Amino acid sequence: MKKVSVTEAIRYRRSVRVQSETPIDSSLVKGCIANATLAPNSSNMQLWEFYHITGEETKKAIKAACFNQPAARTAQQLVIPVVRMDLWKQRLQALKEDLITGFEKTKKRDPEKEAKAMAYLDDEMPEIYQKKSWWKTFSLQRKVRQQGKTKAVYREVGACDLRIIGQRSTALAAQNFMISMAEVGYDTCPMEGYDSVRIKAILGLPDTAEINMVIGCGIRAENGIYGDQFRLPLEAVYFEK
Ligand SMILES: Cc1cc2nc3c(=O)[nH]c(=O)nc-3n(C[C@H](O)[C@H](O)[C@H](O)COP(=O)(O)O)c2cc1C
Predict the structure, then answer these.
(1) Is residue 143 part of a domain?
(2) What spacing in Å lies between the alpha carbon of 206 and ligand 1's midpoint?
(3) CA 84 / ligand 1 centre spacing (Å)
(4) Nearest CA to ligand 1 atom 9
(5) Would 182 be classed as within a structural domain?
(6) Nearest residue CA, atom 21 of ligand 1?
(7) Are 218 and 77 in contact (CB under 8 A)?
(8) pLDDT tens-place string over residues 132-163
(9) Range of 44's domain?
């Protein structure tokens, strides 16, 4: 297969609503999911999971939960990035273990720097991630507003902000996945048209998990792309200051 540049992959990618009947190679798709996990993400907490749907029964159920819209109905396989904010304690533990391994590998150790890095994980991260009561969130937001009058502060401390943090990072992973699929000549269509409760039930996920999107995968059919790619002119969205 001819190597393509990132720009070529980005330009090849379109939302393909009709995939052909040609099957796709699961191991190539899995490789693209491995690329997804290399996406930048908030504090490297990796609060995501990726469900690769290849089984006939599961595919049928997921397609129905996507209302059998064309991009789902014609997909050969589906990939579902899921946000798992509820796994923050486990992920934080893995991050700490990696940090300690890193310290141990360092030739010239710096106890002050190490303590600072550990304190970030031990003190600041739980402050951000633990489920806050309404009152705690309110007081934290009030504190931020007061401090923000005199100095620059991090303001996204509400429960809703936490969901955005998770969705944002997982969406970056989803984009890594779709561009990687384009690199190997495969097509995708991201979807937000689905019944999330049904999808979570099919995947055996708890209520606390959030579906980031459902991505239909395959090889474009002749009529698979619905029109030329429309984007606003760059001048309408680009601002140099
Ligand atoms: C978060 C998200 C949700 C989307 N949901 C759907 C969907 O449910 N069904 C669909 O056919 N396309 C869906 N799309 C595809 C968009 O309509 C498409 O990206 C947009 O029209 C631009 O076209 P392009 O991707 O070919 O450049 C979605 C895209 C994104 C990023």
Answers:
(1) no
(2) 26
(3) 23
(4) 191
(5) yes
(6) 15
(7) yes
(8) 667 777 777 888 888 899 999 888 877 788 89
(9) 6-87+161-225
And the tokens for 165?
A: 């943090």
Pairing of strands 210-211, 77-83: antiparallel
pLDDT tens, position by position, 83-124: 999 999 999 999 999 999 999 999 888 999 999 999 999 988
Buried b (16+ CB within 10 A) or exposed e, 53-71: beeeeebebbbebbeebbb
Q: How many domains does the chain have?
A: 1
113 within some domain: no
SS3 31: helix
What lines the ligand 1 site, CB under 6 Å? Answer: 14-15, 17, 69, 71, 189-193, 213, 229
Is the residue at 114 inside a domain? no
Write the CATH number for 220. Answer: 3.40.109.10
Q: Which atom of ligand 1 is nearest to the CA of 193?
A: 8
Ligand 1 mutation pick, 189, 211, 215, max ligand atoms within 8 A of CB: 189
Output the residue whose Cα is nearest ligand 1's atom 16. 15
| Alpha carbon distance, N-terminus to C-terminus of the chain | 42
Q: Which two tokens stand for residue 191?
A: 């979807």
